[in-house]
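Lecture notes, continued. The same structure-token format from the folding unit now serves as the input rather than the output. Read the line below as a description of shape only.
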């Protein structure tokens, strides 16, 4: 069970963003990072790996950016929007690119379909959080 909201509720200080939006983004980012890692691994098991090189690269980039972003936005002490905004913007972009690529393969590779869905959810959660802090 996700603990992001429970942790935010236990935070001893106040912070300037809607806790539910923040928790949703943290959870979507962690899920997307893990799903993208699993998708890259599944792509490596496909018969024609050469056809999957771009997808694998985007999966791995998306996983790294999502997991790093989850860590940055989880920290509220001495929060700096000038750091958070560009990190969220980068995450939105990589989720869009990865989601687009996975959609190309999703009709014949279930792991890519699942990954594209996770990327879209994460992109949306990050957009909502970015709108709230901008």
């Amino acid at each position: 069970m996700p603990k992001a909201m429970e942790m935010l509720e236990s935070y001893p200080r106040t912070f300037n963003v809607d806790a539910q939006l923040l928790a949703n983004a943290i959870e979507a980012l962690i899920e997307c990072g893990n799903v993208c890692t699993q998708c890259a691994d599944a792509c490596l098991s496909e018969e024609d790996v050469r056809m999957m090189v771009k997808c694998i690269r985007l999966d791995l980039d998306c996983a790294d950016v999502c997991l790093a972003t989850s860590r940055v936005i989880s920290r509220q002490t001495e929060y700096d929007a000038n750091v958070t905004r560009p990190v969220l913007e980068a995450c939105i972009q990589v989720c869009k690119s990865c989601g687009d690529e996975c959609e190309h393969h999703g009709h014949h590779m279930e792991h890519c379909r699942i990954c594209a869905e996770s990327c879209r959810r994460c992109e949306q959660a990050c957009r909502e959080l970015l709108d709230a802090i901008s």
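Point for the exam: The chain has a mean pLDDT of 94.
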